[in-house]
Design brief:
single chain, about 60 residues, mainly alpha, two-stranded antiparallel ribbon, about 5% strand, globular
């Protein structure tokens, strides 16, 4: 599966996957073979940060 490159679409994609399919960001990254640090850096550029308690980027 290809991960979206556009940051806004990436945010929606990741939060949807976290809500519907994965119990953590680590699990999502492992399943999609994604670089967690790079993903978090892109979303931090939009001022969104991962919340483990909510299991989403807020």
């Amino acid at each position: 599966m290809t991960i979206p490159r556009d940051p806004i679409i990436l945010l929606s994609f990741v939060n949807t996957k976290l809500r519907d399919e994965f119990s953590s960001l680590s699990e999502l990254c492992a399943a999609l073979d994604a670089d967690r640090e790079a993903l978090e850096a892109v979303l931090a550029g939009l001022d969104y940060h991962y919340s483990p308690q909510r299991n989403q980027f807020i």
